[in-house]
């Protein structure tokens, strides 16, 4: 066990975030094992609108986004009651703010304004993470990973959509945006560029992430700027 593992002893709530194909679920599995934490994974393929959404975004955007919002809220309410409230650390492969990111790309202005009103009411009392690990990388790498995992509903995903999504993530996870969108509790941000950090195959890169988590726990990590 590494030094990073040994010193992370208190309850933590960590969100792993980033655009499609960046490795959120993989890192969540790895961290939950190393930190002896509960692994919370978002519901994706169970969304009944998803296949139609990627074939006709304009037609199915609102139904798709509302399904994701309601299911993630229920997941977070459950994990707060059954895990966090009982002192169990949690690593999630999403943060609820991703709903705003995706909805902002897919909904028209009128729909998005209504969606934000519902979002603000429903997420107000949800638990917020202590740490967000923000994974980001070049669009070509993300497209290659999406192609390799070959999920049926992702096969028609355009490069422009992934580029736009990455741009939105950069906006939302900039320090000034964190202060705006996380008004009750600003999480510490750990940005990880997957173009040059291979936490799957390189133990040193994984150790870097664990050490950054440690710095937050020890109170020595400032709010980070995204590089």
From TrEMBL:
The keyword ATP-binding does not apply. It comes from the Bacteria. Keywords: Kinase, Transferase. The keyword Nucleotide-binding does not apply. Its EC number is 2.7.1.113. Gene3D superfamilies: P-loop containing nucleotide triphosphate hydrolases (3.40.50.300). InterPro entries: DCK/DGK, Deoxyribonucleoside_kinase, DNK_dom, P-loop_NTPase. Residues 14-217 form the Deoxynucleoside kinase domain. Coiled coil: none annotated. GO terms for molecular function: deoxyguanosine kinase activity. This is Deoxyguanosine kinase. It comes from Alkaliphilus hydrothermalis.
């Amino acid at each position: 066990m590494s030094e990073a593992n040994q010193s992370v002893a208190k309850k933590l709530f960590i969100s792993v975030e980033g655009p499609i194909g960046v490795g959120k679920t993989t890192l969540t599995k790895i961290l939950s094992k190393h930190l002896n934490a509960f692994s919370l994974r978002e519901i994706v393929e169970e969304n009944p609108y998803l296949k139609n959404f990627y074939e006709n975004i304009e037609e199915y955007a609102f139904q798709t986004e509302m399904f994701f919002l309601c299911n993630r809220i229920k997941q977070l309410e459950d994990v707060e009651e059954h895990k966090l409230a009982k002192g169990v650390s949690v690593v999630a492969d999403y943060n609820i703010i991703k709903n705003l990111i995706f909805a902002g790309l897919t909904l028209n202005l009128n729909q998005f304004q209504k969606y934000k009103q519902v979002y603000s009411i429903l997420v107000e009392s949800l638990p917020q993470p202590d740490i967000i690990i923000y994974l980001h990388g070049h669009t070509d790498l993300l497209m290659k990973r999406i192609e390799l995992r070959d999920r049926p509903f992702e096969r028609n995903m355009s490069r422009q959509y992934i580029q736009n999504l990455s741009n939105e993530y950069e906006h939302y996870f900039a320090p000034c945006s964190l202060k705006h969108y996380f008004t009750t509790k600003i999480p510490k941000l750990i940005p990880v560029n997957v173009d040059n950090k291979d936490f799957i195959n390189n133990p040193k890169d994984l150790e870097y992430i664990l050490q950054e988590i440690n710095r937050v726990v020890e109170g020595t990590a400032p709010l980070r700027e995204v590089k």
